[in-house]
Every structure is written in C-alpha cells, then in structure tokens.
Amino acid sequence: MTDKAIRDVVLISTGMASEVIAAYLDRFSDLNVVGFTVDRAYMPEGEYLGKPVAPWDEVRTAFPPDQVRLMGPPTFARLNTFRRDRYREGKAMGYGFASFIHHAANVMTDDIGDHVIVLDGSVILPRTRIGNNVIIWCDTHVGHHCTIGDHTFMSSQVGIAGGSTVGEECFLGGQAGVTHGVKIGDRCAILNGANVVGDLGDDAVLVGPPATLKPYSSARVKRLL
Amino acid sequence: MTDKAIRDVVLISTGMASEVIAAYLDRFSDLNVVGFTVDRAYMPEGEYLGKPVAPWDEVRTAFPPDQVRLMGPPTFARLNTFRRDRYREGKAMGYGFASFIHHAANVMTDDIGDHVIVLDGSVILPRTRIGNNVIIWCDTHVGHHCTIGDHTFMSSQVGIAGGSTVGEECFLGGQAGVTHGVKIGDRCAILNGANVVGDLGDDAVLVGPPATLKPYSSARVKRLL
Amino acid sequence: MTDKAIRDVVLISTGMASEVIAAYLDRFSDLNVVGFTVDRAYMPEGEYLGKPVAPWDEVRTAFPPDQVRLMGPPTFARLNTFRRDRYREGKAMGYGFASFIHHAANVMTDDIGDHVIVLDGSVILPRTRIGNNVIIWCDTHVGHHCTIGDHTFMSSQVGIAGGSTVGEECFLGGQAGVTHGVKIGDRCAILNGANVVGDLGDDAVLVGPPATLKPYSSARVKRLL
Predict the structure, then answer these.
(1) Which residues contact B191 (CB under 8 A, 6 or more apart)?
(2) Is B195 within 8 Å of A211 when comparing Cβ atoms?
C-alpha cells in the first residue's frame, strides 16, 4: 500500500482549528478523520467530536503509521514551532502526512511540498514554490514566482505579490500584504493588516497600522453612512 | 403552504443596492422578485426595473403576506436601524423574510438566523453563529467560533478571525479586519480598512488608517512600478 | 471569419506576467497561445515557453492580423502607458484583441470594453462600466454603479465600493481600497493597501499606511500568538 493510498487521517490537536479542518475534510475531501492526538496533558475526557483521542506519546500504538496519515496541528501556536516539531516527530515515527487542497482554491503550481493545506478561495500563481508543512487559510493570494518556506502559516485574505520570498516558520495574519519582489526572513511575525514594502530580516515582528477610535458615538455617523 | 415554499419576493427599497440584489436573485436563486416597496415619499413614477412598486403603508394590500416574502433593504442606511425597523414591522404584519446564500459562498455553519444574505466568495467557518437580518456582501471571511449579532451589515473583503464577537446593528466597511478573540459591542461603525485589535464597546466609531498623498505627480513613479 | 472566431492568440511581452496569463489561458480558456512578441531589444534566444517569438516591428509578418488576436502585455509597466501604446499600435495594425474572463470570476455587467482580463475570484457588480484594455487580477471587488477607465490595472484583493469612478491608466496595488461614491482621476498610482476615502485628481500618488517594525525578536511574541 502506498502512502498516498491511506485515506484515514489522525488530526494533531483537539483545538478549535482542528474542528475546522475536520469539517473541511468531512465536506470537501475523500480523507476520513478517524481520531485525534494531543499531548497527554491536554487529553479530553472521552472522545473528541465522537472520535477517539490518543496521547501523542502513544499515538503509534493507537494509530499505527501503516494505517493512518497525520495532519495538523492547523495552528501557528508558538510561532509554528509546535507544528514544525510535531511534523518532524511524526516523520521520525514513520508517519506520512496528508495534504488538503480545497477544490475551490486555484493552485497553478506543481511545486508544492509535503503536508500542505490550502483552503477555499486561495490562489497560488504559476512558478511559485510552496514548502513543506505550509498552511494557507481562505482567500489568500500568492503571486507568481514566489517562494514560501517550510512551516509557514498564512491566514485569510493575505496577499503576496509576484516575485517575493517568505522564509520558514513565518506567520502572516489576516489581510497582511507583501509587495512584489521583497524577501522576508525566517520566523517573522507579520500581524493582521501589516503591509510589507521592503525586505525583512529573520525574526522580525511587523504590526499593522492602527485604526483611530473616534471620540463620539456612532449615532453621529448615522446620516453619513 | 409553508413559508419557505413562497418563492415570490418583494424587495424593500428601490435604491441601487436593491437593483444589485434583484440581479443576484435573478441569476443565482429560485426566488422571483415580483415587486418593490418603499416609503410613500420615495415612490417612483410607474414601475421600477419593470416591476410594480407599492408604498410601504399599503404593502399588505398590494402584496399579501400569504403570497410573498420580503427581503431587504440591502443597505446599512442609518446604521442599520432602517433595516432593523423594516424587518420588525414586516414580521409584525405577518410577512416571512427570505434568505439568500450564494452558491459560491461557503457557509460551514447551520447556526444561521432568519433573513440572511451572503454573497459570493464569502466564507463562514464552523461553530459560528449568524444572527437574524444579517447581510454579508462579497468575499468576506467570518472565522470559526464567532458570533455576528442581529441586523449587522458586513461589506466586501471584511475579515473576522476566529473566536470573535460582533454585536447587533454594526456596520463593517470594506476590507475592515477583526483579529481573533475580540468582542465588539452593538451599533459600532467600523469603517473601510479599519483593523480591530482589541475589544470595542457599544456605539464605537473606528476609522481606518489614512493613506498618504505624495506631493508629486505619478509621472515620477512610472519607472518604479 | 469574424474577429471573435479567432482563437489563436499572441501575447505581448515575455515577462513573468505573460507566463502567468499563458498558464491561465491554457488551463481555463479555449484560446491558444501560439507565440509571443516583444521589442526587438528584448528578443530572447530562440523560443519562449516553447513558442516562437517575433519582434514587435515584424509581428504582422510572423502573425498576420487575420490569423491571430493579441493580448497583453499583462503589466502596469510605465503606469500602463506601455500597455496603452501597444493596444493602440496593435489596433492600428489591424489586430483584434482577445478578452479573458475567468469562469470563477462573477461579472454581473455587460458593459465591458474590448480586451479585458478578469481573473478568478473577482466580482464586478451590476451597472458598472469597465473600459477598454482593463486588467483586473484575482479576488478584486468592483461594486455597483462604478466606472473603470480605459487601460487601468487593478491588482489582487482590491476593493472598490459602489458608485465610484476610477479614471484612465490608473494603477491600483494589492489590497487597495476605494470607498463609495468617490471620483479618481486619470493616471493615478494607488499603491498597495492605500485606502481612498475622497476624490483624487489626475496623476495622484497615494501610498498605503506604514506597518511598524517592532524593536524586538519574534521570539517574544511566541506565547501571544
């Protein structure tokens, strides 16, 4: 049995985002979520979403690597290092990882790594390289001739213009933007709405422009809207 | 005849946005727009878009509640209070209200109120509650485990991250963003491009960050683009 | 043979964006890219993407106007003047220009000019006029009752609210926004993330709000994300 023939999947983590991915897989893929795995400290009482949960240190016994593939955790927790480590540990235990590209995403490159999730509405243009263990949430745009490094997480409505490079283990928050031809280092945290207009070194934190809270009630703008 | 079996719809208002919704219903739904209704002061001469128009104070005579359902007005005028009042008045007159979820929207929750409009490209993730009389325009993202209050209007390309709450009668302008886990009160006006990064009380007005007009002609940037 | 029956297309320019459009046409249209044309100074050695390339000053010999239509260049280079000039020169040589509306764009107006490209996820609402030689990249929203002038280029995730006018030869960068009812002149450069909230005269340059680079490493935000 080849790896890709394994349709049974165990999701790493029982957090809220795992529930989202479980719903996506159930509605939009031919993968079957057969269980979950979490750190022993976070084990729920009984099942999660009606499926068995195994502690990570016993996952091989509960869900052998020749019977299931892993996915997740679908989270940027600890700036993607948790996700990176689980991916490496899972591979070391002999697991394959499944990918999920939503049918309403438009992925125009074949240069896609292992264990990649792309949700609906996202577009990835030609000549772009997506690394391993990358998550791209909804309605995100990755332009042409870009490179997205391993373990990077892109939220919804992010826009990366053509010819740009994003390093490994980066987080891009919702509506973040990257102009064309820039280079972003590893482990950067580009928060919601931040617009990258020039190169960024490793470990940068970029915060979006603040909105202004007006010192009057919305009753005042009723007629202007 | 059950309420949901009524496919004939009367749109409230003859404004520009009503024309948009009429076009959506015509192309993408099995609802039939059979007429319009407006305040007597705004009655057009003759028909509107080739359909009869009744003044609101005579709508029951022209379009009896056992024959049609209402929709609209698809506008945030007067910070959604006009829309809220029409909804309540219509219900009091015995009308049902129709909903329209575009087939190219991805609504992954069943916890949706009465009279909800969601246009194409919008995504609503699991475990989210959408109230009554909510309008969500195009390409808007509502994350998981969110709550959107009654009578709220979300424009296009709005992004709400997971676990956030938006109150009742709020307006979110185009490209507005809300980070995860925040709570927004009632009647807030969050204008175009404003990014909400913390809790907001009732009646807040939040304005997006200003762009900068450069003191030179675009002829100067021709070579840089 | 009528103009629209010509399915063979020659793309102007051998730049990166031409490769993108060639890929779109190949996957999503019934047009056949049979070659490319560039200024003689930029002629490649041999073919481009496996297709012949003709210098622009000999394009009529290599690809006669009764056998092919032209498209492109799909670029805003020199603030769209290069594209505008090629379009005029091509028309003067007797060429027709092909349009491409992606099937996953939702164009709800018939008032569309000649040689228009609209990529996937973009929405154009009713009663809007799109001029000639306009390019609209992915996931861009053009509201109702708008006018978009000839030769204008809109990048991805741009949002134009209802009732607004954009002049000729404008460039709107990714995630740029235009509020409702404003008027933008000709040759404006509205860069990434800039939000237009009032009228703009001709030749304006508008720059989006800057993000803030924090003076600490992303290691510090690991626990906050």
Answers:
(1) B173, B176, B205, B206, B207, B208
(2) yes
Would you say A188 and C218 are in contact if contact means Cβ atoms under 8 Å apart?
yes
DSSP string, A126-188: TT-EE-TT-EE-TT-EE-TT-EE-TT-EE-TT-EE-TT-EE-TT-EE-TT-EE-TT-EE-TT-
Query: Is residue B76 situated within a structural domain?
Result: yes
The verdict on B23 and B38 lying in the same domain is yes
Kindly list the residues of chain A whose beta carbon comes within 8 Å of any beta carbon in chain B: 16-17, 19-20, 23-24, 27, 104, 119-121, 138-139, 155-157, 173-175, 191-193, 208-214, 216-223, 225
Among the listed residues B204, C156, B158, C193, the one whose alpha carbon sits nearest the alpha carbon of residue A206: C193
Task: Report, as ranges of residue numbers, the positions in chain B whose pLDDT lies below 50.
Answer: 1
**How many structural domains compose chain C?**
2
CA of B144: which chain A residue's CA is closest? A20
Q: Residues B151-176: pLDDT tens digits? A: 999 999 999 999 999 999 999 999 99
Q: Which residues of A touch B106 (CB under 8 A)?
A: 104, 120-121
**Each residue's pLDDT tens digit, C142-179:** 999 999 999 999 999 999 999 999 999 999 999 999 99
What CATH number does residue C57 fall under? 3.40.50.20
Domain hosting C41: range is 3-92
Q: Which of A75, A103, A125 to mutate to test the interface with C (most CBs of C within 10 A)?
A: A125
**Is the pLDDT reported for residue A1 higher than 50?**
no
Task: Give how far C119 is from chain A: nearest CA, Å.
Answer: 10
Q: What is the CATH number of the domain that holds A192?
A: 2.160.10.10
Q: Do C108 and C87 fall into the same domain?
A: no
A114 with A200, same domain: the answer is yes
Q: Where are the alpha helices (DSSP H) in chain C?
A: 16-28, 59-62, 81-92
